[in-house]
């Protein structure tokens, strides 16, 4: 896959023009990721955030860790604040064959605030460095996804100091959500839109720390906005735009010279049918179909396709359901 411009993650190899899809809780499960990989062979995919307690104390860690080999390159995003737990979780990730680890230092939800991790870790860069060092003992590359800062405090110098401190632990890849996380007064959904975007801060971070890989996240919805970023930073991570308009990923690939034509929805659906057939009755239609509303985004017949996705019959397998849907794409 390297010939297609896929960023190589194992071995900390250099990455050029990274295109990735953000970890999104309840969205980027393994079925969603398989779909996105059919759309975009070169993008880096991330799991939903998995807490170390779910892996180490839960009865079914396989539920969180298993994935299809077609999903590579795939990064496991971890949430937590205990270096020993991060070390153990990192070893599990290596055993399962992940390409890298990512530490969540950006989630503002009340649940992670109660556990004092996620965006709360922005206030403790030394602890983040400890967590990164513990994760790095797995032998996998480690990245950190973080915010610009917390609440309404705007301090570029503090952001740079945070990154420099964490980098001393061996982290060379930082994914910066270009907004603050407001822990008081905003919901997690509002935190994705209300705090002001500061793309220029991320650009400045790359200029100040050119030896680090700096990837930008936040507010990207169209091809022009994404491609313009590659002259300033090393990569772009898309979130909701990739989920709701997945073919945008293929458009970006084409703009980067990684493909000549866009994938046809019929070809993508055929790949999904083959995938669903391997699962058989173990994959009910809604578990896969819920991710496919954007398959025909902006195309004629998009409304009919979305209406079809709500017609799964009780107990119908995803494979059978998608075979019915193929007629809508003829």
Automatic annotation (TrEMBL):
Residues 21-271 form the DUS-like FMN-binding domain. CDD domains: DUS_like_FMN. Pfam families: Dus. FMN binds at residues 23-25, 77, 145, 177, 217-219, 239-240. The record marks 104, 192, 306 as: Interacts with tRNA. Keywords: Flavoprotein, FMN, NADP, Oxidoreductase, RNA-binding, tRNA processing, tRNA-binding. Catalyzes the synthesis of 5,6-dihydrouridine (D), a modified base found in the D-loop of most tRNAs, via the reduction of the C5-C6 double bond in target uridines. Specifically modifies U20 and U20a in tRNAs. Belongs to the Dus family. DusA subfamily. HAMAP family: DusA_subfam. This is tRNA-dihydrouridine(20/20a) synthase. The gene is dusA.
């Amino acid at each position: 896959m390297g010939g297609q411009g896929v960023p190589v993650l194992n071995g900390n190899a250099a990455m050029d023009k990274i295109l990735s899809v953000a970890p999104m809780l309840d969205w980027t499960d393994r079925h969603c990721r398989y779909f996105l990989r059919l759309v975009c062979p070169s993008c880096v995919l991330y799991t939903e955030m998995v807490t170390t307690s779910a892996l180490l104390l839960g009865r079914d860690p396989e539920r969180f860790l298993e994935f299809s080999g077609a999903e590579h390159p795939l990064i496991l995003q971890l949430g937590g604040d205990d270096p020993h737990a991060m070390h153990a979780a990192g070893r599990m990730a290596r055993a399962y064959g992940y390409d890298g680890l990512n530490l969540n230092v950006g989630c503002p939800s009340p649940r992670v605030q109660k556990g004092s991790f996620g965006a709360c870790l922005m206030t403790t860069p030394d602890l983040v460095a400890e967590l990164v060092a513990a994760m790095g003992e797995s032998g996998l590359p480690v990245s950190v996804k973080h915010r610009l800062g917390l609440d309404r405090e705007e301090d570029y110098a503090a952001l740079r100091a945070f990154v420099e401190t964490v980098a001393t632990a061996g982290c060379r890849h930082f994914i910066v959500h270009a907004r603050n996380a407001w822990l008081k007064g905003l919901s997690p959904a509002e935190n994705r839109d209300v705090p002001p975007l500061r793309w220029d801060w991320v650009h400045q971070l790359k200029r100040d720390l050119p030896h680090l890989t700096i990837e930008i996240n936040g507010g990207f919805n169209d091809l022009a906005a994404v491609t313009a970023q590659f002259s300033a930073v090393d990569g772009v991570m898309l979130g909701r735009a990739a989920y709701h308009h997945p073919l945008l990923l293929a458009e970006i690939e084409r703009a980067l010279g990684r493909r000549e034509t866009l994938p046809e929805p019929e070809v993508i659906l055929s790949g999904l049918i083959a995938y669903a057939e391997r699962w058989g009755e173990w994959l009910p239609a809604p578990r896969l179909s819920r991710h496919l509303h954007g398959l025909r985004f902006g195309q004629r017949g998009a409304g009919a396709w979305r209406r079809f996705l709500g017609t799964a019959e009780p107990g119908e397998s995803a494979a059978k359901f998608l075979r019915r849907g193929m007629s809508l794409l003829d």
